[in-house]
Amino acid sequence: AAGIEHFNLDRLASNSMASHRLIQYVGKRYGLNISEALYDRLNVYYFVEGHALNDKPRLAKVSAETISQSLAKGNNNTSQALMSEKEILDFLNGNEGRLEIENALRALNELGV
What we know:
Elements: H1 17-30, H2 32-48, H3 56-72, H4 85-92, H5 98-110
Helix pairs in contact: 1-2, 2-3, 3-4
């Protein structure tokens, strides 16, 4: 179960497109270590804490905190500036990366995954 010991079964299902787009963007900007840290945090955020992945203001806040903490630990090999909560929210409210995620989903579907 993706390393999650206790799933919150009372959580509401939510559209994960924004979070997938963000993780992909963060990976491109900061590298794999930071995007994996964000992915792990968002799994806990959704599956354990029960927060909605489409609550963009809350998602932006948690993501900004996670990115900041991961960068402070030196888990990156980039000199990219820290993304602010506002910058993340602006990204989430846009469509950048949507087509890439949709294409990946389509390819997986065609493979029967």
